[in-house]
Amino acid sequence: RQLGPGAVHVPGWLSLEQQRWIVERFGEWTQGPVPLRAASLPGGRRMSVRTVCLGWHWQPYRYSRTATDVNGQAVLDFPEWMVRLGKKAVAAAYSPELGVDESLVGLSDVYAPDAALVNYYDDGAAMGMHQDKDEHSNAPVVSLSIGETCIFRFGNTQTRTKPYTDLELRSGDLFVFGGPSRFTYHGIPKVLPGTAPDGCGLDRGRINITMRVTGLS
Length: 217
Ligand code: MD3
Ligand code: FE
Hints:
Layout: E1 2-4, E2 7-10, H1 16-30, E3 50-54, E4 57-59, E5 62-64, H2 80-93, E6 115-121, E7 127-130, E8 141-147, E9 150-154, E10 165-169, E11 174-177, E12 186-191, E13 206-212
Antiparallel strand pairs: 1-2, 2-11, 3-6, 4-5, 6-13, 7-12, 8-11, 8-13, 9-10, 9-12
N-(carboxycarbonyl)-S-(naphthalen-2-ylmethyl)-L-cysteine is lined by residues 117, 119, 127, 132, 141, 143, 175, 177, 181-182, 184, 186, 188, 208, 210.
C-alpha cells in the first residue's frame, strides 16, 4: 500500500454510509455560493474536471477567498468535521504497522487542512499530469474517492512522463501524499464508466476530495 515514501493507499477506508453522507454534503456544496465549475487554464483551455472548493478557492494557479474567476462570491467555510476526518486519514495512512517512515508517524495530531478541492469527473473527464505546488506548505495532501473507479497515474518528482505507476482508485479509497512524495507528478488518465458500487450514493461519475494545508491566512 506504500507506492513511494510517504505515498500510502488505503483501499476501502470510507464505509458506504460515510460515502453516502459525503455525497449528500457534495449536493449542498454545489448549491452553495460558488457552483461547480471547470477551471480555465492560462493558455485558454478548459479543464474537463469540474471543481467546488471549501475554505479557499483554487484558481489556476493560486488560492483566494472569493471566486473572482467564477462569480465573485466568498467560498464556503472549511468544515470542522473535515478537519477531524483529515487527521483520522493521516493517522490511518501513516501508521507504523504500514511500514511508513518514523518521521511521518505522529503527523496526524498537528495536521490541520484548511482547503479542499472537490473534483467531479463525468464520463470522459480526465486530469493531466501535474504537481500540486500552489500551497505554501509541504504538509500532506489527503485524497478521498467516491463513485466510479478511475485510473490514477503516480509519477515521479522530476518529469511529467515515465517512470510512473498506474493503479485503480475505487469508491471509498484513501490516499495520503506527504513527505518525499508530496511533489510527485500525478494525473487521472480516465474514469471507468458504470463502476460506481451500489450504495455509495453516486450513480454516475466520480467525486474526489483533496484536503490541503494552504499555508495562507
Ligand atoms: C500526489 N486530483 O486535485 S487525487 C488534484 O483524483 C488532483 O481528482 C486527482 O490531482 C483526483 O490536484 C488526484 C490524488 C492526489 C492528490 C494530490 C497529490 C495525488 C497527489 C499531491 C501530491 C502527489
Ligand atoms: Fe493534484
